[in-house]
Specification:
CATH topology of the largest domain: Multidrug efflux transporter AcrB transmembrane fold
Helix content: 55-70%
Largest sheet: 6 strands, mixed
Number of domains: 4
Number of strands: 15
Strand content: 15-25%
Length: 574
C-alpha cells in the first residue's frame, strides 16, 4: 500500500477512535460525581431534583429582583436571556440592549413560565447525561460494586398452569418478554441503570451497580402489577373534575390518597388519569369516575402488540385474550356499547377508548400516538411476567472493593507499560520509540472499541488489557529483528525495512489469528467473566496487529523519506 493510503487509513482510525472515546472521556473526566449520581438514578429522582433546583433558582432570582430590579442578570442565569428574547419577539416588544432583572422577568408571561424554563434546563441536561451514560465504557459489578441476582425460569409452574409442554423456542420467547418487562419496571421502583440480560437457556442475570437497596431490588423483581378494564361514568367524571377544580383542598386526604367525594353513589370510584410527562413518567391529566366492579382482569391477556389501522394508518394496540377472558370481555363490551372503557394499571387510568361493538378475543384500541401505543402495549403485558422467575442466587459486592480493584488495575497497566517502553528503547533505540507510540495507539483503539460497543470493563477485562500490553509488543519485536537481519546482509535502510515487514507479516498473522480464534471461542462459550477477558483479548490482538503493520510502517516511511535516511534500531556501533 502506498504511503498516502496508509496515512489516510491511520488518520481515519484516529478520528473514529476519537468519536468513540468522546462519550467515555466526557463522562469520566468532565462530569462531576454528584451529577453522575443524579443522572444515573431513576427518572423519578431526576424529576424531583430538577423541580427542586428550579424552585431554588426561582427564589434566588426573586430575591435579587426584590433587592434591586435594575441589577444585571447574574451570569449563572444568563441562559434564560435567550428564552426571554424569543418571548419579547412574540410579544412584539423591543429587546433590551443590556439585560436587567426587571427586563428578564418581563420576558416571561408568568412566573410559572420562568419556572418551567429553568426546570427544562436541568431536565434536558440530566436526561442528556443519562443517555450519555449508556454510551460509555461501563464498569462491571466487581469494579463499581452493587448487586448481582441470577433468576431462573420456572418451567414446571408454567406447564402446570397452562397444561402444555414448554418447548425451548417458546421458553426463549417468554424469557425475552420477561427481560423487556423487567426493563420497563426500572423507573417505577427507582433502580438505577440495571444490566439485565439472558444467560444460558433459561436464566436471567441482573446486575445493579452502585449502592443498591436490597429491599427495593427485591420489590422490583417481585412486583407483578395489576391491570383491569373498567367502565367510565362520563356524567360523574365531568362532575368530579368540576368539583375538584372548585375545591382544590378536597382533592387529597392527609396521607395523599385521592378523596372519594360524598356525591359518588355506591359502586362508583374516583381515580386519576395519567399521561407521560417530559421525563417519560406519569403525569396527572384529569380525574375519572369508574364502575368499581372490574369488567376484565388483565390476567386474561395472552398477548399484546402495536399495529396500525389499515385505512387511516393510525397507531393501534392489539391484544389477544384467553378463552375465559374473551367471554367476559364480550359480555362487558356488548352491555356497554357506546360508553367509555378505561385501562387501569395499579389504580391509575392509563388509557380510555369508546366501545363501538361487542368484542371477543381479539381487541383493537385506537386514539393514541405511536409512542403512546407502544407504551400501552407494554402496559398490557406487564401485569404479570409471562413466565415466573425463581431467584437462584443474590450477591452483594462492596464498592470499596471495586475502587481498590480499579486502582490496582491501573497501577498494573501503568507499570506494565513503563517496563515495556523502557525495554523497547533500551534494546531498539529509535525504533523502540516507534513501537512505544504504536503501543499507545493500540491502547487507544482498544478502549475506544470497548466504549463503542458499550462493553463492560471487569476485573478479568483488566487482566486482558494487561496481557494485551505484554503481547502487543511481540509483533514489533518480530519486525525489528527481521529488519536487523536484513541490515546484516548488507541491505540499505529502506530495503531492510521493506523486507523486514514483508517477511514478518505471515509470522505475525499466524500467531495472532490462532489466538483470536481461541478468544472468540471463549467469548461464545464462556461465562460472563471469561467473556470479558476474551472480548478484551480479541480486540487487543486485532488492534495491536493494526498498530504494528500500519502505524509503525507509517513512521518508518516518514523517517526514511528524506535525502539522508536514518534508521535507528540498535545502540551497538557499527
Amino acid at each position: 500500500m502506498k504511503k498516502r493510503g496508509r496515512l489516510l487509513i491511520v488518520l481515519l482510525v484516529a478520528v473514529v477512535c476519537g468519536i468513540f472515546l468522546f462519550p467515555t472521556v466526557k463522562w469520566y473526566a468532565f462530569v462531576p460525581q454528584e451529577t453522575k449520581d443524579i443522572a444515573t438514578g431513576s427518572k423519578i429522582q431526576i424529576r424531583e431534583f430538577a423541580q427542586g433546583q428550579a424552585s431554588r433558582d426561582l427564589r434566588v432570582l426573586k430575591e435579587v429582583f426584590a433587592g434591586n430590579a435594575k441589577a444585571p442578570v447574574p451570569s449563572e442565569y444568563s441562559y434564560l436571556i435567550d428564552e426571554a428574547k424569543a418571548n419579547y419577539k412574540n410579544m412584539k416588544k423591543d429587546t433590551p440592549k443590556s439585560w436587567t432583572m426587571e427586563d428578564l422577568f418581563k420576558g416571561f408571561y408568568t412566573e410559572k413560565d420562568l419556572f418551567d424554563t429553568i426546570e427544562n434546563g436541568y431536565r434536558s441536561n440530566l436526561l442528556d447525561l443519562k443517555s450519555l451514560s449508556g454510551k460509555i465504557l461501563q464498569l462491571g459489578l466487581d469494579l463499581r460494586g452493587g448487586m448481582s441476582i441470577l433468576l431462573e425460569a420456572d418451567s414446571a409452574a408454567y406447564e402446570a398452569k397452562n397444561g402444555t409442554t414448554l418447548s425451548n423456542a417458546r421458553k426463549g420467547e417468554l424469557i425475552s418478554e420477561d427481560i423487556a418487562i423487567l426493563n420497563e419496571r426500572i423507573d417505577q421502583f427507582g433502580v438505577s441503570e440495571p444490566n439485565i440480560r439472558k444467560q444460558g437457556a433459561d436464566q436471567i442475570l441482573i446486575e445493579v451497580p452502585g449502592a443498591a437497596d436490597p429491599e427495593r431490588v427485591n420489590s422490583f423483581l417481585r412486583g407483578k402489577g395489576s391491570l383491569a378494564f373498567q367502565i367510565v361514568d362520563n356524567d360523574l367524571t365531568n362532575q368530579l373534575n368540576t368539583y375538584f377544580a372548585e375545591n382544590p383542598s378536597e382533592v387529597y386526604t392527609d396521607k395523599g390518597a385521592l378523596k372519594q367525594p360524598d356525591f359518588l353513589p355506591a359502586g362508583k370510584i374516583a381515580t386519576a388519569y395519567y399521561v407521560n410527562d417530559a421525563y417519560g413518567l406519569d403525569e396527572l391529566s384529569s380525574y375519572v369516575v369508574l364502575d368499581e366492579e372490574i369488567g376484565l382482569d388483565g390476567i386474561h391477556i395472552a398477548n399484546a402488540m402495536v399495529g396500525s389501522n389499515a385505512i387511516t394508518g393510525q397507531p393501534t394496540v392489539n391484544f389477544e385474550l384467553d378463552t375465559k377472558g374473551g367471554e367476559l370481555f364480550y359480555k362487558l363490551t356488548s352491555t356497554h356499547t357506546g360508553e367509555m372503557m378505561a385501562v387501569v394499571q395499579d389504580g391509575k387510568v392509563k388509557a380510555m377508548a369508546t366501545i363501538t361493538e361487542g368484542i371477543r378475543n381479539n381487541v383493537q384500541i385506537t386514539g393514541f400516538g405511536q409512542s403512546e401505543a407502544a407504551d400501552l402495549s407494554i402496559v398490557l403485558k406487564t401485569a404479570a411476567l409471562p413466565i415466573e422467575l425463581i431467584v437462584v442466587s443474590q450477591q452483594a459486592v462492596g464498592a470499596s472493593l471495586g475502587e481498590d480493584t480499579v486502582r490496582s488495575g491501573l497501577i498494573a497497566i501503568l507499570v506494565g507499560l513503563s517496563l515495556v517502553f523502557i525495554f523497547m528503547v533500551v534494546i531498539y533505540k529509535g525504533s523502540g520509540l516507534f513501537a512505544d507510540v504504536a503501543l499507545l495507539f493500540n491502547l487507544i483503539i482498544l478502549i475506544s472499541v470497548l466504549s463503542a460497543f458499550n462493553l463492560t470493563l471487569t476485573l478479568t477485562s483488566i487482566a486482558g488489557l494487561v496481557l494485551t500490553v505484554g503481547m502487543a509488543v511481540d509483533a514489533n519485536v518480530i519486525i525489528l529483528e527481521r529488519i536487523k537481519e536484513e541490515l546484516k546482509v548488507g541491505k540499505n535502510a529502506q530495503a531492510a525495512v521493506k523486507a523486514g515487514f514483508g517477511k514478518a507479516f505471515w509470522t505475525i498473522m499466524d500467531a495472532n489469528v490462532t489466538t483470536i480464534i481461541a478468544a472468540l471461542v471463549l467469548s461464545q462459550l464462556g461465562s460472563g467473566a471469561i467473556k470479558g477477558f476474551a472480548n478484551t483479548l480479541a480486540v487487543g490482538i486485532a488492534s495491536s496487529m493494526f498498530s504494528a503493520l500500519f502505524v509503525v510502517k507509517l513512521m518508518y516511511d516518514a523517517s526514511l523519506s528524506g535525502k539522508k535516511p536514518n534508521l535507528s534500531i540498535s545502540w551497538r556501533r557499527k
